[in-house]
Amino acid sequence: MSTVLFTLPELYNSYKSWVSKNPSSLGDWESSVKWISYFLAGRINNSHVVSELIYCLSNLLVMFNDRIIKKAQKVHSNGTAETIKLWLTVIEYSEVFCELSANKIWGNTGKWIVIVSIQVFKCISRLFLIFHYKEPIIQSPPIPVLNRKNVAASNQKYTSARDVAQAEYDSVSFTLKRSGRVVRKVDSSPPLGLRDWKPLPKRSLLGVEEGPTLTNALAKRELIAETVYISKPIIHLAAMACLGTRTWKPWAVSLALDFASLELYRSCTKKDVKSVTPQQRLQISKRTILLLLYLLRSPMYEKHSKDRVHSFLMTLSKVPLAGLIFTPLAQYLPFWQSTYFYMWSS
C-alpha cells in the first residue's frame, strides 16, 4: 500500500506532463466519455442519474485538463475572480446531476431547495464578478473550453518567436561567464549621438507577448443589461413560486427579461460599435439563438410544441441511418425537456 501511495504523485506528475505536451490528443478520449453518457440513457436502472454523472465528470475532466494546459502556458489571471469563475463552472456542469440526485433522495421538496440554493449562489457570484472585479460579459460556462488546436498553434508560434528573439539578442550582445553580465558588442553599438547608455533589456521583453490582454469593463447600459440577464433565473423562480409552475406568466416574464437584456446590448452597438467587444458580440449572438429554447420550455412545449417536434423527429428518423439518432431522441425528449429546459438554466 505504501508503494502505491508513493507512486501516486509520480503518476499525477506524469499525467500533467503528458497533457501539457499533447493538448490536441485529449479530445478523442474526452468525447468518448461523453458518448458513453448518451448510450447509457434509458438502458439501465437509474440510467438518467448515472448518465448525467458520467456527463458531469467528463466536463469536469475537460476543465481539469484545460487548467493543466493553462498552467503549463503560465497564463496569469486575477486569482480571486478566477476562483469564483471556477466554482461557477463546476456548478454549471454538475447542477443537473445535483438536482436529479436531490429529487431521488429527498423528493420534490429537496429538489427545489437545491435549485434555489444553486441559482442564488450563481446570481450573487456573477453580480460580484461584474460589479467588484469589473469582469466583461459572463460566458456560459464562465470558464470556456480551451481551443486545443489554437493552443498547439500558439505554442509553435511562441517557440519560434522566442527563437528569433534569442537569435537577435545573441547577435548584439554576449554574456560574461563569471559575473553573468550582458555586454553589448562593439560592432552593434549605435552612433555616439544616439546612445542612451542604458543596459540591454531582458530577454523576456524582446517583442514576445506574454500573458492575456485585458478587456474593458462593462459600460453603464451594458452593466444594466448584464444585471438583468444574471437576475433572470431568480426572478423567474420567484414568479413560479407566486404564480405557479405551469402558468404562462413566469414563461412570459423570463422571455421579456431576455428581450430587454438583448435590446439594451443592441442599443449600445447602434450607438457605438466599439463599445461592445467581439467577445460580447459572440455571447449576444448565442443568447439570441437560445431564445429558440422557449419553444421547448413549459408550458409552450406541452400546449403547442410537443406534437410538432415529435412529428419532425420521427420524419427525420425515416432517413437511412438517421433513425439511430432521431428515434432515441424522440423517445427521451419528454424526459430531457422536464430535466434540462428550464428558464433558470440559461
Structure commentary:
- It comes from Diabrotica balteata.
- Its main location: membrane.
- Belongs to the peroxin-16 family.
- The protein has 346 residues and is mainly α.
- It starts with a helix and ends in a 6-residue tail after the last helix.
- The chain has ten helices and two strands, in the order αααααββααααα.
- A hairpin with a 6-residue loop joins strand 1 and strand 2.
- The longest helix is centred in the first third of the chain and has 53 residues.
- The chain has a two-stranded antiparallel sheet with strand order 1-2.
- About 4% of the residues have low confidence.
The ordered string of helix (H) and strand (E) elements is HHHHHEEHHHHH
The SS-based structural class is mainly alpha
* Estimated helix fraction: 55-70%
Number of strands: 2
GO cellular component, one term: peroxisomal membrane
Protein name: Peroxisomal membrane protein PEX16
Family: Belongs to the peroxin-16 family.
InterPro entries: Pex16 (IPR013919)
Summarize the helices and strands and which ones pair or pack:
Layout: H1 2-21, H2 26-40, H3 47-73, H4 79-131, H5 148-172, E1 173-175, E2 182-184, H6 220-243, H7 248-271, H8 278-289, H9 300-317, H10 323-340
Antiparallel strand pairs: 1-2
Helix pairs in contact: 1-3, 2-3, 3-4, 4-6, 6-7, 9-10
Please describe the structure with a list of short key phrases separated by commas or semicolons.
single chain, 346 residues, mainly alpha, two-stranded antiparallel sheet, peroxisome, Pex16, peroxisome biogenesis
